[in-house]
Amino acid sequence: MAATIGIVGSGAVGRALAAHVVASGRNVVLCNSRSPATLESAVDDLGPRASALETSAVAAADLVVLAIPWHVVVPLLEQLPPWHGRTLIDATAPASHLRLPQPHDLGGLTSSELVQASAAGARVVKAFCTLPASVLALPPANAAGRRVMFLSGDDAEARAVVSVLIDDIGYAPVDLGSLAAGSALQQPGGPLAGLDLRRAD
């Protein structure tokens, strides 16, 4: 498991995931569309395991979470160097709101298939996209059990790595299999979008 997790995006989803990552004992590097200096307050809030870097440096981590608005996903990915087999967790959602889905026209592809096509050489895993940021910011587990976190991807090894991360930060991973099938279930309009389930361990 990567000791440092890169999170591309410092909005509500990115910060919620960053907090869980540092709580698990790992380091996290963040970036946004502006500059590392603008993330000073967020890094201070997260503590000594967090830092901010330029986008290219964050995207060079062994394990990267993509948590940015959908309209900038493809342009950003096409600007980055090849991934050379590194794992990219797609936490994006092609809609303005999970409860009122307005999916973009993706030409017959699921959103994660489009991410895969735009991130040359990446092993894409879809995860962290079915719950709104306000729920992601809550503790992953309580007396009722651990929140379920779905994942899907075409590379079994990458799915296993992401499953371990999900488990380590406190969620209950549920593997949905292939990227196309699993992404369709998770993205806005799919049956799992916005579904908050718990598993008693």
UniProtKB/TrEMBL annotation:
A Pfam family for this UniProt protein? F420_oxidored
**UniProt KW keywords:** Oxidoreductase
The highest taxon in the source lineage is Bacteria
The chain positions of domain Pyrroline-5-carboxylate reductase catalytic N-terminal read 4-94
Keyword Oxidoreductase applies: yes
A GO molecular-function descriptor: oxidoreductase activity
Q: What name has this protein been given in UniProt?
A: NADP oxidoreductase
Look up and give the organism this protein is from. Answer: Kribbella pittospori
